[in-house]
Design a protein that fits this description.
With 279 residues, the chain is of the alpha+beta class. The protein contains nine helices and 15 strands. The longest helix is centred in the N-terminal third of the chain and has 18 residues. The relative contact order is 0.15.
């Protein structure tokens, strides 16, 4: 769909009047109501480990890196630590946890997958329980709303890899515990994509280089490039990206500056992207 003189919200308004109703018309499943929820890219990567989250899966990823900074546990040292709490699994045998660990190591090529059970007196039981301070335990219980009978899985890795692993572990747990409601279509917009990323030590475009940076020229001139967001968006349903789009950068001065930050000269833009430069 192409629109002139439109902003991001105009696009959303039109799409939300069409797509959900199509799903209702040609399916007997329930469809999430409009307005479709907006999830910032950064939030999606933290809570779901992906920018294509399946919201039928109720499990969420929680960051606990701060709780392990001062603890002497080499497996988590200098790493980002994320946890996923699963509720009411007291009847699950040890083999359930071992199968998850095997999946992480064999299928995802992870170095391991730590886990603990929460017992009736709220003590922790599991391979790494002795390394977790009482303060950290209390804070983890509070952050995940966990109680006796629940369990917590731990993913510790570098930035980028930790999101990937946590997202796949979340997905697998949702499947094994049969938490995914297959009678629903759950939509969301992923918004606020980063304009740039660091790649091989250089600033590069993260997604669509021709999208409009949020804040326009002022952001390009005053912000850290890695903090600049773009008017880019994806429509996602049940973990599948249905479409993606952006507000096109229609201001030639902003376009030149945006490309300059990524290492392109004005001449590069004119020569390599003439059709869009002259549009």
């Amino acid at each position: 769909m192409e629109m002139s003189f439109a902003d991001q919200e105009d696009v959303f308004e039109v799409i939300e009047k069409v797509i959900p109703d199509m799903f209702r018309k040609f399916s007997n499943k329930s469809v999430s109501k409009s307005p479709i929820q907006r999830i910032p890219y950064k939030t999606a990567m933290l809570k779901y480990g992906t920018d294509k989250p399946d919201l039928r899966n109720p499990l969420e990823i929680v960051d606990v890196t701060d709780l392990f900074k001062d603890l002497e546990f080499k497996a988590f040292e200098n790493k980002i630590v994320r946890i996923i709490a699963v509720h009411s699994v007291q009847e699950k045998p040890r083999s359930f946890f071992e199968e998850m660990t095997d999946y992480a190591i064999q299928e995802l090529k992870a170095k391991g997958l730590a886990w603990i059970r929460i017992l009736e007196d709220k003590t922790f039981q599991g391979p790494i329980a002795k390394f977790i301070s009482e303060e950290a335990k209390e804070k983890m219980l509070a952050r995940t709303n966990s109680k006796e009978g629940d369990a917590i899985f731990f993913i510790a890795e570098k930035e980028g890899r930790v999101e990937e692993l946590a997202g796949e572990i979340r997905k697998k747990l949702g499947e094994k515990l049969e938490l995914i409601d297959k009678s629903k279509f759950e939509f969301c917009w992923i918004v606020d994509f980063p304009m740039y990323e660091m790649k091989d030590g250089k600033i590069s475009f993260s997604h669509n280089p021709f999208s409009m940076p949020q804040g326009g020229m002022k952001s390009l001139l005053t912000k850290n490039p890695l903090e600049i967001l773009a008017y880019q968006y994806d429509l996602v349903c049940n973990g599948v990206e249905l479409s993606s789009g952006a507000v096109r950068n229609h201001d030639i001065d902003i376009m030149i500056k945006a490309f300059e930050i990524a290492g392109y000269s004005r001449s590069d833009v004119e020569t390599k992207f003439g059709a869009l430069f002259n549009a």
